[in-house]
Write a structure and sequence with these properties.
This protein has 122 residues and is mainly β. 0% of the residues lie in helices and 50% in strands. The radius of gyration is 13 Å and the shape is globular.
């Protein structure tokens, strides 16, 4: 069993940066692939990025490539999402998720956090 808690969301101006954190409980965290998804009101949950447990296999959505970076610290049971050059269209609730392998679909993950709101003003 893995429990996930996101933090770091907030309000930022366009062009700014935020770093989201996802703290995981459970001794098997380091074996899980971790993903970030986002969901805006009235829209489906959207894949953002995922990483395998070693961090050497990552997959980014085209919309965030070169702006967002996923990283993880297995010793701290934490995965991060560094978001730079934020745009108003990045406004969403951001969720972290844990699964067996890197996947770009929500049903590829077994555990989810409660989400953290990111709002980018123009």
């Amino acid at each position: 069993q893995v429990q996930l808690v996101e933090s770091g969301g907030g309000l930022v101006q366009a062009g700014g940066s935020l770093r989201l954190s996802c703290a995981a409980s459970g001794r098997t965290f380091r074996t899980y692939a971790m993903g970030w998804f986002r969901q805006a009101p009235g829209k489906e949950r959207e894949f953002v990025v995922a990483s395998n447990w070693r961090g050497d296999n990552t997959n980014y959505a085209d919309s965030v490539k070169c702006r967002f970076t996923i990283s993880r610290d297995n010793a701290k049971n934490t995965v991060y999402l560094q978001m730079n050059s934020l745009k108003p269209e990045d406004t969403s609730v951001y969720y972290c998720a844990a699964g067996v392998e890197v996947a770009d679909t929500w049903y590829g993950y077994d555990y989810w956090g409660q989400g953290t709101q990111v709002t980018v003003s123009s």
